[in-house]
From TrEMBL:
GO terms for biological process: sodium ion export across plasma membrane. Its main location: membrane. It is found in: Cell membrane. This is OadG family protein. It comes from the Bacteria. NCBIfam families: oadG_fam (TIGR01195). It comes from Candidatus Lachnoclostridium stercoravium.
Amino acid sequence: MKNLKRILLTLCMVTCFFALTACSAAEERELKTDENIAAQLCEATEMTLQQITAIGAEDIEEQIALAEDQREYAFSSVLTTWNNLMGDTGNLVEILDSSAVRDEDGYVCVVNAQFEKRPVEFTLYYDDQTGEISSMSLVAVYTMAENMERAAMNTLMGMGTVFIVLIFISFLISCFKFINVFEKKVKSSPAPAAAPAPAPAPAAPAAEEDLTDDLELVAVITAAIAASEGTSTDGLVVRSIKRAGTSKWKRA
């Protein structure tokens, strides 16, 4: 919170200073840099850079949210950039140089600083028409070897992704022939033969009726046999009586 207040106070001082000189500057048609304004702007910009880079990783998210709540969008943007760069740059070591020039939109101040791992360029844009700081940028300076390495990695990842997609598409296309083979097999395969109808089960034979218990029938049959043989019924014993399947009377 204290860091944010100090930075905002510095920016307000710069804004007030340029607001006092905006009237006289607006009357001049030529884009002429005022050395006094440029010197004070460089000093304020260097102070702003020191205060921004003094914010550690544990407080940066809170400071970004606070700046957005106060609608300090230029400040929240540069804090977000610092949050992404602090791992690549390390801590601030020293301010190398600074310069400010005037263009059509106002003043542009550039501060070159040396950090632990690499140089960083901090730029502040001031709009002398509105008397406000329009934007700020923080750019890490990478060596040629680092830029070539990053470019090679990006190219390699892009080409690798393209080749992987092409290989996958080729694999899908190669699978189409199996689809055609499968369709031909389905069309050429004969229809399954109908299952044969089950043979009718043979009729169960009728249970033979035991007629030996029918005494009247036994007596009649015994008498008939004795009469046909011309003998007495005393010597005849009927042990079983079976009903014939067909009858001679029916065939007659």
